[in-house]
Design goal:
single chain; 650 residues; alpha+beta; Ubiquitin-like (UB roll); Threonyl-tRNA Synthetase, Chain A, domain 2; BirA Bifunctional Protein, domain 2; 5-stranded mixed β-sheet; 35% helix; 26% strand; globular; RNA-binding; protein biosynthesis; tRNA binding
Length: 650
RNA sequence: GCCGGUUUAGCUCAGCUGGUAGAGCACCUGAUUUGUAAUCAGGGGGUCGGGGGUUCGAAUCCCUCAACCGGCACCA
């Protein structure tokens, strides 16, 4: 006998091997009908599984949040069956549940096209309507391999081989179709319902390895009901509206063109935004850092010394004279990183331990030859500006410096409204330089710092460890922030480096007169300023806070009678340091309101005969249909207060 | 880099099975002097992504290159 505890606390005994379905039916036939799976001690399993031990039991109905994952997983199976029914000879591989849906990877000589999706979707609905029960078999390894080999499913054979000895091979059937799968599944295909949609086809490498064959992946989304599906699709539309590439065009911030793949043409408004960010960062650095500027183009030999020519060459732009090359055959490279340049600055002249920590910052423009398929608007470019800094310090100062950087990073993010931050510690990778003792020490220090970071935040900052993800020269912290619509972006980074200073023979003279290589800490807060600008565009959906808005105020006239006054207002605002423009065009005020609202200008000052006579303005703020009237002086004071950057308002 | 898709006016897009381009918005001109999300009328604008080919004839079919989009891989 086994004892099962029910959600209400009741405990009952059953014969060993009783299935979840039997128990549900025993309670009520309607419960059995509604139940799609069960959870034993919190682990979701097939309802038809015999229960062999004491456990807490819960019945998972289709409305249960836990059913969603099952719906998606079942949907993936149905997708695979539909594809094999419509396209015989297609091999199945894997089909997991992902955020918001699922996918399935297929191997087929001719890849699927978007036009195939409606057909496949229709077939899926047909299979769901058949409502065949999901049933499970346990097969021996040999049988599984034999059956799949006979079916021509080479990838499944490979998957069977990869499953560790002693682990059972579960085969799930739905009608005549079956698949190797770890499960669990619902009771029948009919439970999936109709709230799903195939979204896109894409290429994907077998097992995520670019050396392997390219498979065709079909992505789908699935939900418990039509409302949830509609809501999700609506969310996608909303996300598209705030896409920085779209807003960049609509708000006239920047553009790209064919001749410059991955490099940005910043327009006046976009550059204003970019410069507001730089100005902000500069103010934040003023207290502790010295700003420098290292050359764009440096001899190959320097990159050989730094090691970049060895392990980063594929990503570097080589530069040579375009004229008479016999005159100067030297090979140069456009800098992909600022660190070697900063080491040269550190090296110049003798440094004492008294000079440490030495913090060199640069808004360094770097160029990296990113793979063509990786380029994506401002988010992934080939030429960008890092808010970079390198801190040269002693080993003893390392922890303190990391914490200082942490404070700077977190307060910066907070100023932009990013409060949900995860700090991840990446530890030693397989391929690395330096002795294990050095790594042991560095990782120990970093772990302590990570704990301190979590403690200081009072638990607000989440931390994580990524084993093996560190840079080859040292462990690193990665700062991930979450934007207004829940997406995560890795921006800041702090990396300790025991390697580069030595490669360049950089040292400082210690108190005892000996020469020692400094520890170098690489650190960025925004990371790429271009990318960070892109993140802000999407985070704010173009509705920037006043201090960042490229065009803060537009003064619009109602009739030409107010022109002179409007000019006066704009001059006053500009003199006070606001970014103000005038709109004296011979258009109706409704037209102007609409236009500037679409351009996402935060503040619109409307002036007519009345305002001109009284020296007032009518203020209309973006997103609000209301207006308030006040004197120009009052409005100016309000706007100035509001336009003050957060670091200057503290 | 790999797989698939896309590329027509400044923007969004139409253009069927080949007969050498069209809409809306934007722009320009004129009229209108207007009170908080589109005033009316007229006009200009495209070597249909580049190159090559098939054809009497190509935006349309084929090849090729490029950029972009969606994924994958990459992301020091």
């Amino acid at each position: 006998m086994i004892n099962l505890t029910f959600p209400d606390g009741a405990e009952r005994s059953f014969a060993e091997g009783t299935t979840g379905f039997d128990i549900a039916k025993g309670i009520s036939p309607s419960l059995a009908k509604r139940t799609v799976a069960m959870a034993l001690d919190g682990v979701t399993t097939d309802l038809a599984d015999p229960i062999e031990r004491d456990a807490r039991i819960e019945f998972v109905t289709r409305d249960d949040p836990r059913a969603l994952e099952l719906i998606r997983h079942d949907c993936a199976h149905v997708l695979a069956e539909a594809v094999q029914e419509l396209f015989p000879g297609t091999q199945v591989t894997i089909g997991p549940v992902i955020e918001n849906g699922f996918y399935y990877d297929f191997a087929r000589n001719e890849p699927f096209t978007p036009e195939d999706l409606p057909k496949i979707e229709a077939k899926m609905r047909e299979i769901i309507a058949r409502d065949k029960p999901f049933t499970k078999d346990i097969w021996s390894r040999d049988k599984a391999k034999e059956v799949f080999r006979e079916k021509g499913e080479a990838y499944k054979v490979e998957l069977v081989d990869a499953i560790p000895e002693g682990q059972s091979l579960k085969i799930y059937h739905q009608g005549d179709w079956f698949d190797l799968c770890r499960g669990p599944h619902m009771t029948s295909t009919g439970k999936i319902g109709n709230a799903f949609k195939l979204m896109k086809v894409a290429g994907a490498y077998w097992r995520g390895d670019s050396n392997n064959a390219m498979l065709t992946r079909i992505y789908g989304t699935a939900w418990r009901n039509q409302e949830d599906l509609d809501h999700y699709l609506h969310q996608l539309e909303e996300a598209e509206k705030r896409d920085h590439r779209r807003l960049g065009r609509e708000m006239d911030l920047f553009h790209f063109q064919e001749e410059g793949p991955g490099v940005v043409f910043w327009h006046p408004k976009g550059w204003s935004l970019f410069q507001s960010l730089i100005a902000y960062m500069r103010r934040r650095l003023a207290a502790d850092y010295a700003e420098v500027n290292a050359p764009q183009v440096l001899d190959k030999s320097l990159w050989e010394t730094s090691g970049h020519w060895g392990w980063y060459k594929e990503n570097m732009f080589k530069v040579q004279s375009a004229g008479d090359e016999t005159e100067d055959e030297r090979v140069f490279a456009l800098k992909p990183m600022n660190c070697p340049g900063h080491v040269q600055i550190f090296k110049h002249g003798l440094k004492s331990y008294r000079d440490l920590p030495m913090r060199l910052a640069e808004f360094g423009a770097v160029h990296r030859y990113e793979p063509s398929g990786a380029l994506h608007g401002l988010m992934r470019v080939r030429g960008f500006t890092q808010d970079d800094a390198h801190i040269f310090c002693t080993e003893e100062q390392m922890a303190e410096e990391c914490l200082k950087i942490n404070d700077l990073i977190l307060s910066t993010y907070a100023d932009f409204g990013f409060e949900e931050i995860v700090v991840k510690l990446s530890t030693r990778p397989e391929k690395r330089v330096g002795s294990d003792e050095v790594w042991d020490h560095a990782e120990a220090v970093m772990s302590r710092v990570l704990e301190e970071i979590a403690a200081r935040s009072g638990g607000r900052i989440k931390t994580d460890i990524l084993p093996g993800e560190g840079a080859f020269y040292g462990p690193k912290f990665e700062y991930t922030l979450r934007d207004a619509i829940g997406r995560e972006w890795q921006c800041g980074t702090t990396q300790v480096d025991f390697n580069l200073p030595e490669r360049f023979g950089a040292f400082y003279v210690d108190a005892d007169g000996t020469k020692k290589p400094p520890v170098m800490i690489h650190r960025a807060i925004c990371g790429s300023m271009e990318r960070f600008t892109g993140i802000l565009i999407e985070h704010f959906a173009g509705h920037f806070p006043l201090w960042l808005a490229p065009s803060q105020v537009v003064v619009a006239t109602i009739t030409s009678d107010a022109d002179a006054y409007a000019e006066d207002v704009v001059a006053t605002l500009k003199a006070a340091g606001l970014r103000a423009e005038k709109d004296l065009r011979n258009e109706k005020i409704t037209y102007k309101v609409r236009e500037h609202s679409l351009a996402k200008v935060p503040v619109l000052l409307v002036v007519g005969r009345k305002e001109a006579a009284e020296r007032t303005v009518s203020i209309r703020r973006l997103g609000s249909p209301n207006q308030t009237s006040m004197t120009l002086d009052e409005a100016l004071a309000d706007l100035l207060r509001e336009a003050r950057p957060p670091d200057l308002s503290r």
